[in-house]
């Protein structure tokens, strides 16, 4: 059971992101669904996670696979019913698992009744809930871009003679958050899932809610992806967004134990840090995406974590993530021939032993891979628009690999995206029965983290180590845990303080007392409790 009086559960928790289309299909239509997730809850419990974040399962025309919502209070029939959700929530809570859902309120679907009404006439009740500019001629009002269509973000609306704004696909018109009625309406929608008992929200592109009041064009930048040669300072990341975060925080706090996790639009940790507020009055957490763009290197990882810790305002709680549904999986990003698997082990230890809430992405515990798909199999609008330069986000969204049976045990029908070709060897069933598997490694790390509060909330201090090694201590009370990650195929020597091995990736590590100079094996992970 979950404890509703536990207000800081999210600081100790490990989150697991479920992309519902791809996790488990219960009704044989090739698309994952809520009942499918419920049938796999025991797997998540055994793995040892504490909370899941489920990507959108709400009513949607699926132009952006659920990130285009046409009814915020309804479950899309593809995913099941509202009863399926309450049943899943209850079953999760019974097992002590929290459930966070996705809140997509920078934009709605163009099929949302609010937009249908809004676009019908300038005097419609909801007209000002979206963003409009008068249309004179063919020239759009400024240079803002639709990232998933690689063109201007302004689309004509004949009925009113205006442009509407959509910076993802044209089917995702953006809300006018400066309108107080729109705000109130969104807060009402947000209460709906919290009233049902959901444990919080992951807030889609939260820093994009408010646009520049003068609609200035973005300045040019030299980077192509995903910014299309622009610095997004006017269509996103405006200072007024913090007022909205404070309102959301007050709403969440009125429920006591619910969490808000913001997605920022941009890679910079500074932007994410700024979303926490100075007095814990904004978001509980904002995703730090820096690891998603870091090369494999002990030095770079440490620099990234260090910078993040120093940017966060006093009292704010860090978080880390290596993979999600928008980026190439880290198993594939850090591919390095025979060292790919050892690297995945090091990455898992890093994510689960640093100070901050870890977010895992479904299948990373198996080392699920990303493969380029043939053009005919692409489904992601971004992938289709940018093919063959990029393959979009389908490769990281392939079905969960449960077993070696047809369709990887994900579905009895052909899945909506092809299963990775390696599923016969790489799947939950085979890794559960192999004590040396990556899955078992994640399970051990998660179990250790759960028993050692120093790994959850303990203070962190870096240890001196050679440049290939990332090393730190976590301390809580009198317990001190030292973590050594050899991020290289070399055998650097480290000075180990006397202690007992709690967990090591190397069979030779044993569990005895270790002290003094020690030569680490390639990609060795050593987690020790100080004597
Ligand atoms: C960010 C989400 O993570 C992504 O999947 C989605 O396409 C965009 N926001 C638009 O909602
Ligand atoms: Mg289904």
Essential attributes:
single chain; 531 residues; alpha/beta; TIM Barrel; Oligo-1,6-glucosidase, domain 2; Immunoglobulin-like; 3 domains; eight-stranded parallel beta sheet; six-stranded antiparallel beta sheet; 15 helices; 21 strands; 26% helix; binds 1-deoxynojirimycin; binds magnesium ion
Report on this structure:
The chain has helices spanning 9-12, 34-39, 41-47, 82-94, 113-120, 180-196, 241-253, 269-274, 298-311, 330-333, 340-353, 381-386, 428-432, 438-451, 453-457, and strands at residues 15-18, 51-54, 58-59, 71-75, 98-103, 132-134, 145-146, 151-152, 154-157, 162-165, 200-203, 259-262, 285-286, 319-321, 357-361, 459-462, 469-476, 479-486, 493-504, 513-519, 525-530. The chain has 531 residues and is an alpha/beta fold. It folds into three domains: 9-107 and 178-210 and 240-445, Glycosidases (TIM Barrel, Alpha-Beta Barrel), CATH 3.20.20.80; 113-165, Oligo-1,6-glucosidase, Domain 2 (Oligo-1,6-glucosidase, domain 2), CATH 3.90.400.10; 458-530, Immunoglobulin-like (Sandwich), CATH 2.60.40. Strands 13-12-11-5-2-1-15-14 form an eight-stranded parallel sheet. A six-stranded antiparallel sheet has the order 16-17-18-21-19-20. Strand 16 (459-462) and strand 17 (469-476) form a beta hairpin. Helix 11 runs parallel beside helix 14 (438-451). The longest helix is centred in the middle third of the chain and has 17 residues, at 180-196. The two termini are 35 Å apart. The structure holds 1-deoxynojirimycin and magnesium ion. Magnesium ion binds at residues 25-27, 29, 31, 33.
């Amino acid at each position: 059971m979950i404890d509703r009086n536990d207000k800081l559960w999210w600081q100790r928790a490990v989150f697991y992101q479920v992309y519902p289309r791809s996790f488990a299909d219960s009704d044989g239509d090739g698309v994952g669904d809520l009942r499918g997730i419920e049938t796999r809850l025991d797997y998540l419990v055994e793995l040892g996670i504490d909370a899941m974040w489920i990507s959108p399962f709400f009513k949607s025309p699926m132009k952006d696979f659920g990130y285009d919502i046409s009814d915020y209070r309804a479950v899309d029939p593809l995913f099941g019913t509202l009863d399926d959700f309450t049943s899943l929530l209850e079953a999760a809570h019974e097992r002590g698992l929290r459930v966070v859902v996705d809140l997509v309120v920078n934009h709605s679907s163009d099929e949302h009744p609010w937009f249908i009404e809004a676009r019908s006439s300038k005097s419609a009740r909801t007209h000002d809930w979206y963003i409009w500019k008068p249309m004179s001629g063919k020239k759009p009002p400024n240079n803002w871009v639709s990232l998933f269509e690689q063109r201007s973000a302004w689309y004509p609306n004949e009925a009113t003679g205006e442009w509407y704004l959509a910076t993802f696909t044209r089917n995702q018109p953006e809300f006018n958050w400066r309108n107080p009625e729109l705000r109130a309406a969104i807060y009402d929608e947000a209460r709906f899932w919290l009233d049902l008992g959901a444990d919080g929200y992951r807030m889609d592109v939260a820093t994009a809610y408010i646009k520049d009041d003068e609609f200035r064009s973005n300045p040019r930048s030299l980077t192509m992806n995903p910014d299309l040669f622009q610095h997004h300072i006017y269509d996103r990341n405006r200072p007024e967004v913090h007022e909205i975060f404070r309102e959301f925080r007050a709403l969440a706090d009125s429920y006591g134990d619910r969490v808000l996790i913001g997605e920022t639009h941009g890679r910079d940790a500074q932007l994410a840090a700024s979303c926490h507020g100075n007095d814990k009055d904004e978001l509980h957490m904002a995703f730090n995406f820096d690891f998603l763009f870091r090369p494999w290197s002990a030095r770079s990882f440490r620099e990234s974590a260090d910078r993040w810790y120093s940017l966060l305002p006093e009292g704010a709680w860090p978080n880390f993530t290596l993979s999600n549904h928008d980026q190439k999986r880290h198993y594939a990003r850090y591919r390095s021939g025979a060292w790919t698997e050892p690297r995945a082990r090091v990455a898992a230890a890093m994510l689960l032993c640093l100070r901050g809430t870890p977010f895992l992405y479904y299948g990373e515990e198996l080392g699920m891979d990303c493969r380029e798909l043939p053009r005919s199999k692409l489904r992601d609008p971004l992938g289709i628009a940018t093919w063959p330069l990029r393959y979009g986000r389908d490769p990281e969204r392939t079905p969960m690999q449960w077993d070696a049976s047809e369709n990887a045990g994900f579905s009895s029908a052909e899945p909506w995206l092809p299963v990775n070709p390696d599923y016969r060897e790489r799947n939950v069933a085979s890794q559960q029965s192999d004590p040396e598997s990556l899955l078992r490694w994640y399970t051990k790390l998660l179990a250790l983290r759960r028993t050692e509060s120093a790994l959850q909330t303990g203070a962190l201090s870096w240890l001196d180590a050679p440049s290939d090694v990332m090393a730190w201590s976590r301390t809580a009370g009198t317990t001190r845990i030292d973590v050594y990650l050899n991020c290289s195929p070399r055998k650097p020597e480290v000075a180990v303080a006397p202690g007992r091995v709690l967990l090591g990736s190397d069979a030779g590590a044993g569990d005895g007392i270790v002290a003094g100079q020690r030569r680490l094996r390639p990609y060795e992970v050593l987690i020790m409790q100080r004597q």
